[in-house]
Batch of 3 targets.
Target 1
Amino acid sequence: MVGCMPEPTPCDLLITGGTVLDLDRADGRIDATVAVTEGIVVAVDPAPDAAERWAPQRTIAADGAYVAAGFVDGHIHLSAVLGAAQPYTAATGPSLFGGAGSTADIGRALHQFLQMPVPADLVEAAVAPVLAALAIGGTTAVVDAGSAGIDGIVAAARRVGVRVAAGPSLHDVLLGDTGEVVPVADAGSVLAAAEDWLMRQQVTPGDLFEPVLTVTEPTFCSDGLLDGLAGLVARTGVAVTFHSHETVESVADHDHAHGRPAIDRLADHGLLGPRCTLMHAGSVSDRDIEVIAATRTCVNVNPLGNGMLGFGAAAERAITRYLEAGVRLVLGSDYTPSMIATGFDLVRAALIVTREAGGADDTLTLEQALRMAANGTVTAGAVADLVVVDRTGPHHVGVDHPVPGLALRARPGDVRTVIVGGRIVVDAGTLVTADPGDLRSAAEAALGLVRSHS
Ligand SMILES: [Zn+2]
């Protein structure tokens, strides 16, 4: 019957009036209404009357705003915030976080950091404001790359409402004074503890938490550990991340200690593949890249962290070479107590480092940088991890396209709404899952406790 409208379809959230970033479309944008139900985007509808077809529980007016997939920090060490309990001292030479730290020293420091016996509730208190700050700036998911107190990190993420992948970080050897392998743990015990931890995790459908196993560095793994890890991965299907190929020196140190390239050791044990991420991996040969591309292994790059920590070898133009080989890249901050980086920071660091290091203006497009920073695109069927970013401020003058708008103009303070798994975490720029002031007070108290015990 003409003029008879069908009954509107119920949905949880309706985002109206926004300009949606969609990097799968040739023009990168679509002015559309976005409907979300049970944590999933169910429609991205450009029809002018699209909003009338839905009966939402809640409508978010995104007029004058961009709608995009949430940012992901693909490499963060959340419990490193406990290091903020130590007073700042100026660097006087090569050091772990001052740059040019040796592989052996970094291994020893990580060994200590990862073994730190910290209670989960203390880690939860210290990490919660970090996750809150990230969420307020538009980050909807983080991958912890190795921390102490994993259970506290998971609790903090659930409390703040941010998606987190985390798990124990494995190694069983360090390097001695002449670069030789020095065992520090029994591979069997390390693997048994990791498997025991994995089995204890209660993950329900729609959970914000995904267990992963991280590996401190192939340099710090015996072949026995890699072999056992491959078996564990095959049995459980768990994702695994490796710090690897950080610098020319760290690669040489690995090959000296183990007698052959790390990529061969990982490939021979069957550890490379789409469920494997190599973290840093800025110092790679063409053959390394060939193997990474052929196995569809993911690579995490941390231009901001590299610049701050003093390793990562962007001078080898790794990002450009990976993109040419079709390797999937994910940006990360490699967070330390020195900074809490938003997706906006990561996108700009990637552009600056890649273009400058590549020596050409076209080595990384805005679209490529945004794709590396976000969790997919806003399309029907995608998980509803979304950000609504205001573009009415004076710093947006003359731009209304989400690609340059988000990559170059927008600031963390422009983030109006953050949605994780369909749940509103930030509303009108305010965290709604917890009081940021309370989180900070609890964290300061926890850091005070750490200070008094160190
Ligand atoms: Zn790291």
Target 2
Amino acid sequence: MPLIRRYDEPDCRAILPEFITKRLVVSCKLPLRFVILIGYSNMRLRTMTNRDVVAGLRLNTLAGWNQTATDWHRFLDASPEGCFVAEIDEQVCGTATTISYQERFAWIGMVLVDPQYRKRGIGTQLLRRTVEYLDQCGIPTMKLDATPQGQPIYEKMGFVTEYQIERWILKRLPDQIVKLATSNIAPLTEAQLSTIQDKDQHVFDADRSQLLRSLHSETPEFAMGVFEQGALRGYALGRRGSFADHLGPWMAESRSAAKTLIDEFLRRSSRDTLLVDCLTANPFATELLCARGFSPSRTLTRMYRGPNAFPGKPDSLCAILGPEFG
Ligand SMILES: CC(C)(COP(=O)(O)OP(=O)(O)OC[C@H]1O[C@@H](n2cnc3c(N)ncnc32)[C@H](O)[C@@H]1OP(=O)(O)O)[C@@H](O)C(=O)NCCC(=O)NCCS
């Protein structure tokens, strides 16, 4: 489609490579609004399907992210109409996903652009498409966990900061890994799992039991509860990612419950790399992680757009499920 656009219009950015636009704007020192680009855009946005999972995996691997094909299927199962790809010459060069939680709020995730197509407005257009979609669905609040690269795009679309999250990583040597047979791990009972789901609904402020059940059925050994005299004091679930095992959500009402859960996760995982996305305000999570050799690897900013009427109870949360899920 031929396009004539002012440079400061977002969809103009996909027309020409960055070095040409930089030459026009930076070298010629022209104000953005006076730069008119005439070009031919072959970028298009469309709904993501199961056939795009391989392309999605390629993009998250290029970005050094930990998702697997199972995670991409989780997004598509939860939101068959609400995940999007950007294509250039029929090759997927960007993605964005959404999950609606009981129509109280929706989560935006997997905003990814192929490194060779960045800074041309594709990320902005993908985000705009997800916001339009969620607006059409009548969902009042949109939430996400932004990387430092993504945060400026979200701010321009009206997202504001709620709190800070930090990703912690542990790299273990083979002799630091306990070789625990799965048969030695007592699985959660159905009653315990449903108590955990109820508690999670209270902490997260929406029912995401389908997602928790899918984590539980994939890796039952990472689903744990701390019960004291029959009462649930803490719980955790986890995932096997492409390069690391990921703990989350990790919720605990006391330091001792938090300690039991992290130590049990370290015992139950057989991978050398482990990840946890901690709430920086939690009083004991980072101290427990430091003491076990974890170190901070990157920051994330929880952001929302809309009324945030369902903020959850972050006080008892040591770690989120993951930035792509909430
Ligand atoms: C974050 C990410 C999705 C952004 O994608 P993108 O397509 O580069 O985003 P855009 O082009 O819409 O905007 C990025 C910046 O480039 C600028 N830009 C856009 N077109 C440009 C052009 N032709 N020339 C120069 N700059 C341009 C935008 O103004 C914006 O600038 P800002 O950072 O000052 O706000 C991409 O960098 C990425 O995949 N990063 C790794 C994964 C990640 O962190 N994702 C975010 C998860 S929250």
Target 3
Amino acid sequence: MLHILHETHRASQCVKAGRSWLTCLMKHCTVCYNGFCADVGSVVLKQAIVVTSLVVAVIGVKLYVDHEVRHIRRHFDGEIRNLQSDKKTFSEIYKTHSFWGTPEHLSGLASAKKYAMPCIEYVQNFINTTELKTIYDFGCGSYEWMQHVVVPKNVQYYGVDVVDSVIQANKEQYEKDNIHFVGIDSTDDFMKYKGDLLIVKDVFDCWNTERTQYFLDNVLPNFRYAIIVGYYSLNGKNNRACDATGPAHNRDMEAAPFNLKCKESKIYEIHFDEEGKQSTAYKKIVLWVNPTYVSQGGNGESS
Ligand SMILES: C[S@@+](CC[C@H](N)C(=O)[O-])C[C@H]1O[C@@H](n2cnc3c(N)ncnc32)[C@H](O)[C@@H]1O
């Protein structure tokens, strides 16, 4: 038990003599714990106070460090998912036509009709032969290739992108009864969307592995089908680790580390021939079918 024995008479004499309460307390009060007593001002007690202060300080530092580590982790996770920075990065790319874009082909040359024809035909055939109510085109860019796919009137198409200027331009140029464009601030905003077909073309090529996996884990389950298209290397140089959003990286969703179980895939060749410069590239289309999809009912729009 902790006791404070207060020598009232001597302490009040001390105060009367003009000393401070603290000084008098130190001189004339005794603290006892489990039968062991020490003057408040004694060396033992001072040491106990120093040790206690040290312990409190160490605990305080630990709590502070833990808090900072949690903060850094949260920030790092945010970087993986790139919660806000996509908007900045991709808006800048559209403004400066850096990496893939040109003033004529804002979303990249590979999206021009003459180069994207195999993809247009694949998606068209899928839409014509599958019962769908909604299509979400994640990272739709300037709607360059998708405008050549005929979306039946009873199917709602939503082009979604993080770049406001491109969404605004699409709205002004292409929006009609069943063709809509939606701006989002981050990938996380897209997680509330559910629908029949998800199209993701040439988006993962610009993302790192962690963010792509995060998308696969958290967004794909909301859809019944996904058609994913990206640059592909015939000699297996796909899915190289990359840490930053930047120029295209070859992707093979069916290979490690993604190992997405797909129903079918198709590789197509593009012969670029621009201003006398020729080059060849390959794209892989995969069709993923959700094995656990439960119909959302209604029109399948975002919840
Ligand atoms: C190379 S472009 C491809 C555009 C279009 N899919 C095509 O094939 O023409 C990549 C697009 O993905 C969009 N994008 C990248 N990260 C995104 C994100 N987190 N959310 C939505 N769109 C994103 C970019 O703004 C850009 O329009």
